[in-house]
Amino acid sequence: MQASITKNKKRIIRILVILLLLCIWQICSYFLPSILLPSPIETYDEFVKLIINGELISQLAQSGFRMLIGLAFGIIIAISSGLIAGKFEVVYEIFRPIYSMIMGLPPIIVVVLAMVWFGTSSAVPIFVVSVLVFPVIYLNTADGWRNIDKQLLEMGAIYKTSHLQNLKHIILPGLAVPIISALSLAAGSAVRITIMAELLGSNSGIGYSLALARVNINTAKVFAWTIICILIILILDHFVLNPVKNYVLRWNKQGT
User: Fold this and answer.
1) Among residues 184, 168, 169, which one has the least CA distance to residue 245?
2) 4-14 pLDDT, tens per residue?
3) How far is Cα 214 from Cα 224, in angstroms, rounded to an integer?
4) How many CB atoms lie under 10 A from the CB of residue 201?
């Protein structure tokens, strides 16, 4: 009962904070021109227009597709590289300057390079997402493999356990949590990276629509898209990433 009450209190607090922010936003919009700060009502009107004219679904579908493709490429390359680097010390040291260099690169530099190579096409956000999600997934995978208890693998070799048993009871439990944690961070970042790449180097998608709204000085539309982006990240985190992470954690506990 106490846990339920605490959960309800947290929910009420969050709702009250959102309402308070809306009130502050509404009050501030009275003292500033719409070109600087549109009211919540004006932003809502633009949101409705995006739905009615089909722009929301169209641009969301394009951005979502690019994000998923870029994320898929990044995940496949990062996990494959991470597994090899985790197993072989030499490969781990070879990759060290590569992921350090990528992590040190400002995202805007990657976008500019992608625009030089690919122009303003879907390849820009796909490439940028793939490159920028690589380091965290690679590092978690490599370190996860290196942290697997080698004594367990040696015991498996002594007792002649099958590769499938080693995979199920030793390797996957050791890799599942770090990889899922990395994927959670990467997926959240991928949304922001995709929109940023489209904003600067694409001719369609949410980022492009944001750029167009800025050029046309339609601040209400900029705010509408901003709220949509926040909602996308919250929905992705709450309904996709958290359930998957919780499932993996439960599975890992049961396996151990």
Assistant:
1) 184
2) 557 677 778 88
3) 12
4) 25
CB 92 within 8 A of CB 85: yes
Residue 1 has pLDDT above 50, yes or no: no
Q: Which residues contact 234 (CB under 8 A, 6 or more apart)?
A: none
How many CB atoms lie under 10 A from the CB of residue 153? Answer: 15
**Long-range contact pairs involving 29-36 (C-beta distance under 8 Å, separation at least 24):** 34/219, 34/220, 35/217, 35/219, 36/219
Say what the pLDDT of residue 169 is. 63
What would the pLDDT profile of 40-50 be if each residue is shown by its tens digit?
999 999 999 99
> 145 near 83, Cβ under 8 Å?
yes
Q: Report the pLDDT value the prediction gives residue 164, as an integer from 0 to 100.
A: 64
Tokens of 169: 């009871």
* CA neighbor of 104 nearest in space, from 115, 96, 112, 94: 96
Closest CA to 187 of 83, 75, 58: 75
